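Lecture notes, part 5. Sequence design as translation. It can be helpful to think of inverse folding as translation between two languages: the language of shapes and the language of residues. The source text, in structure tokens, appears below.
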């Protein structure tokens, strides 16, 4: 889906035209969700500001983004009015966004059998209104050490610029017929599966 920068984009769907465009869309749809200044967008996407300005103009022309000027600054945000914006967010979230990064980080971890995002981030992901929080709560099911899980989550957090707060729950505690109150509360909340492609 990612093509070279010199290749023309389809007029109706100029998505993933380049690696830079993919990273820009990932920041906007999968990480921020709201308004962000062009300079901060460039920094978070690790793309030159001039390139970001060009890509933003192109994406805005095709209706994927909306922007407004505040003084000398330009603020840009996803166009959530698009009927397929939630699906685009889901694709980006699971590839270059939070779930994709966590999947990559945790997928090969020893003793990690299942992993979920819970708390306010999961609630937003499932459609409750509000901006995505700047921290992510993660529960790992298995016999992995909390220290190793923290290290893996720390690697993901560096690229995402969010704080990741992991906990580890042993399988028998997670599947208990009468779980302890904390586990029962977790299981009753919104839980977003982190795909662990590296595990069997």
């Amino acid at each position: 889906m990612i093509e070279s920068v010199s290749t023309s984009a389809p007029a109706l769907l100029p998505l993933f035209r380049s690696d830079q465009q993919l990273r820009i869309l990932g920041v906007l749809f999968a990480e921020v969700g709201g308004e962000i200044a062009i300079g901060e967008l460039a920094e978070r996407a690790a793309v030159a500001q001039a390139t970001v300005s060009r890509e933003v103009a192109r994406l805005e022309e095709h209706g994927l983004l909306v922007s407004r000027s505040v003084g000398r600054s330009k603020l840009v945000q996803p166009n959530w009015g698009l009927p397929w914006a939630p699906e685009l967010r889901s694709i980006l979230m699971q590839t270059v966004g939070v779930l994709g990064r966590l999947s990559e980080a945790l997928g090969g971890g020893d003793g990690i059998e299942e992993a979920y995002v819970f708390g306010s981030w999961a609630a937003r992901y499932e459609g409750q209104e509000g901006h995505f929080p700047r921290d992510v709560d993660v529960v790992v099911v298995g016999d992995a050490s909390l220290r190793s899980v923290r290290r893996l989550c720390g690697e993901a957090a560096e690229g995402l610029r969010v704080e990741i707060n992991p906990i580890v729950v042993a399988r028998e505690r997670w599947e208990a017929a009468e779980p302890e109150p904390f586990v029962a509360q977790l299981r009753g909340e919104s839980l977003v599966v982190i795909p662990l492609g590296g595990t069997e």
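The translated text above is only one of many valid answers, since several sequences can fold into similar shapes. The chain is about 45% helix and 20% strand.
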